[in-house]
Amino acid sequence: MLTAHNRWEVLKTDSSSSQNILFSAKKSHVIQLGTKLQVFLANNVQEQICDFRVEGSWTESSCVIYAGESSTIIAQMHKKRSVGSVLLGKDKFMVTVYPHVDYAFIVALIVILAEIN
Fold this sequence. Notes:
By secondary structure, the chain is an alpha+beta fold. It contains 2 helices and 7 strands; from the N terminus they run ββββββαβα. The protein has helices at 83-88, 103-116, and strands at 7-11, 21-27, 35-41, 52-57, 62-67, 73-80, 92-97. The chain has a 7-stranded antiparallel β-sheet, with helices on one face. The mean pLDDT is 83.
């Protein structure tokens, strides 16, 4: 769900109650080259340091997802280019998710990134 404050909120049910928020994501800066998202888990109410960050280039169809402000990569995505994707417009993505990382969480971040771009 996109909020009025240009923030994406991921909920565990259809209710928009703040009790159902799993995490939220927002652009690091209003104007930016490439895409940088800050991701905050629901229990991070101060939002002084993000829990995860996504850095990518939609023109290159790739992104890297990091744990917080560290250099620890938890997932990577890039668009798989093929004749079918060019001619038929059917995009395919290759996603590498590192051990002990929730696949659904990574997919949700990629969907948000795609919607932003």
